[in-house]
Amino acid sequence: MIERVLSIETSCDDTSVAIVDRSGWVHSVVSASQDWEHELYGGIVPEIAARNHSAALIPLIEEAFKKAGMNWSDIHGIAVTNRPGLIGALIVGLVTAKSLSQSKKIPFLGVNHLEGHLLAPFLKDAQYSPPEDFDYPYVGLAISGGHTSIYHITGLGEYKVLGATKDDAAGECFDKFAKMAGLGFPGGVRVDQQAKNGDPTAFEFPRSMIHDESFDMSFSGLKSAGQRMIEQLGPEMVQERLPDLCASFQEAIVDVLLIKLARAAKIYRAKRVILTGGVSANSRLRARAEEWAQKKGLRLVIPPLRYCTDNAAMIGYVGALRMARGEASGLELGPSPQTLATDFR
Fold first, then answer.
1. pTM above 0.90, yes or no
2. N or C: which end of the chain has fewer CB within 10 A?
3. What is the DSSP letter of 124?
4. Which residues touch 286 (CB under 8 Å, ≥6 apart)?
5. Given this model, what pLDDT does residue 345 score?
């Protein structure tokens, strides 16, 4: 019986390894960031990401065992992200998982990165556990640099995509605006920091598709509006008004996300709602979402930051659940830059 897995996450630029029980208990999770290397280029360079995964992965596996006080005799399976993501980065994790699976004679399973985010609220450790009444069904907003989607989740493997961005993801929009404003990379957290001292009504930015009855979103127009505003103001005025600019730009993104989430919660009569993915770390989004949920009497669950950003714990939890019901992958499994058609309804 599969009870505990070692999990590997290398879908983008963070290398992460965890040891997780089927109950969601995280015995250890260790990660290595590459931000300092990619900052020079203003964004993630896939070749550099893959190379750094190769260097970091085995030491992280050793560290995860040490932190958990365990060894291979305690592990019943291996879970690894194989989709969606950067192909070169995914290959590193997938080949490592296959090699360990063969050498240790235990099964492995490829996991969808987004499924990990959708089930991240169920994770537990000494500092965090979800509310006792948190369970299926719920509406989830998954927001990151590569994905912005709204789902209706009714059980393991039962995910209906209600809507998604038609162009740029919210995290990508944050990062590109930060680059244009001279804040560097990673951009989202720096925009958030600047915005704390700014006026969110100082500048007018568009909120695309907010009156559209669908749950779909669009952020490309907002990105273009941000670029035009920065060009009109000029370098000196941008620096002088940077907190106001960031607060106003951030508010536009938060407005769109929450309007769409609120519509989904209403239509599906949801009592429980989650925010997940790297952008759910945004302090303004969290504060306004909590205020909205309290006003509407909804149970809002947002995982702690360590489980919102890309991490192996969420991959391990999905892997443990799926492997416990008999699922496993074969050596022919390959990486994919996209979600498979069968992953979501």
1. yes
2. N
3. B
4. 275, 280, 302
5. 80
Is-cis flag, bond preceding 186, omega within 30?
Answer: yes
Q: Which homologous superfamily is 138-302 in?
A: ATPase, nucleotide binding domain (3.30.420.40)
**264-273 confidence digits (pLDDT tens):** 999 999 999 9
Instruction: Report d(CA 53, CA 185) in Å as an integer.
Output: 19
The tokens for 284 are 């303004």
Distance (Å, whole) CA 161 – CA 139: 10
Domain 4-128+307-324: which CATH class? alpha beta
User: Any residues with CB less than 8 A from the CB of 49 and at least 6 apart, and which?
Assistant: 12, 13, 34, 38, 86, 88, 89
Q: CA torsion 82→85→86→91, rounded to 10°?
A: -10
pLDDT digits (tens, 9 = 90+) for 221-250: 999 999 999 999 999 999 999 999 999 999
Inter-residue contact 263 to 215 (CB < 8 Å): yes
- Residue 55 pLDDT > 80: yes
Domain ranges in the chain with CATH number 3.30.420.40: 4-128+307-324, 138-302
Task: Report how far residue 79's alpha carbon sits from residue 94's, in angstroms, rounded to the nearest whole number.
Answer: 9
Dump the DSSP string for 157-207.
TEEEEEEEBSSS-HHHHHHHHHHHTT--SSHHHHHHHHHTTS-TTSS----
User: How many of the other CB atoms lie within 10 Å of CB of 159?
Assistant: 22
CA neighbor of 111 nearest in space, from 79, 155, 72: 79
Listed residue (304, 299, 196, 295) closest to 251, CA to CA: 196
The token pair that represents 141 in the structure block: 């907003």
Residues 164 and 141 sit within 8 Å (Cβ to Cβ): no
CA nearest neighbour of 14 among 99, 113, 100, 112: 113
What SS3 state is found at 40?
helix
Q: Which residues contact 80 (CB under 8 A, 6 or more apart)?
A: 7, 8, 9, 93, 94, 96, 97, 108, 109, 110, 111, 315, 319
Q: How many CB atoms lie within 10 A of CB 294?
A: 10
Contacts 24+ apart (CB under 8 A), 23-28: 23/124, 24/122, 24/123, 24/124, 24/317, 25/124, 25/125, 26/123, 26/124, 26/125, 26/313, 26/316, 27/67, 27/68, 27/70, 28/63, 28/64, 28/65, 28/67, 28/68
